[in-house]
Amino acid sequence: MRFIILSSLLALASAFTLDAPTNPIAGEVTEIHWSFTATDPAEFDLFLMNSTEAFGLIAVLGTVLATDMGEIHTLLPATIPAGNDYQLRAVDHTNVDRVYAFSPVFTITAAV
Fold first, then answer.
1. In whole angstroms, what is the distance from residue 49 CA to residue 31 CA?
2. 20 to 30 A from 9, CA-CA: which of 16, 37, 61, 77?
């Protein structure tokens, strides 16, 4: 019971949120935006995940990103298959099991 309460309080303390990219296409540059507060971690890693798989890492999109940047422009690998099960995950760059935020699930269109 105490663990559940503590976990809930920690989640409330962080306001880090990831937005889903708009119309991402494999093999092209896409913009990824996030919002944060002063109490959020200063740095994080950004993963592209398959949201339907427990260990669905598709690509590492950024490492040790400065939270206060608020956005990055990154090249999505051209080998990513088209699909609607993708999600971004912001994690602690020293412990990838510590997840700061998930984006909403989104679609990636195949490379042209």
1. 16
2. 61
Q: Tell me the whole-structure pTM to 2 decimals.
A: 0.85
pLDDT digits (tens, 9 = 90+) for 60-74: 999 999 999 999 999
63: exposed, middle or buried (Cβ count in 10 Å: 0-12, 13-18, 19+): exposed
Strands 57-66 and 95-102: unpaired
Spatial separation of the C-alpha atoms in residues 109 and 112, rounded to whole Å: 9
For residue range 6-21, what is the model confidence (pLDDT) as tens digits?
A: 444 444 456 899 999 9
How many domains is the chain partitioned into structurally? 1
CATH code of the domain in which 32 resides: 2.60.40.2840
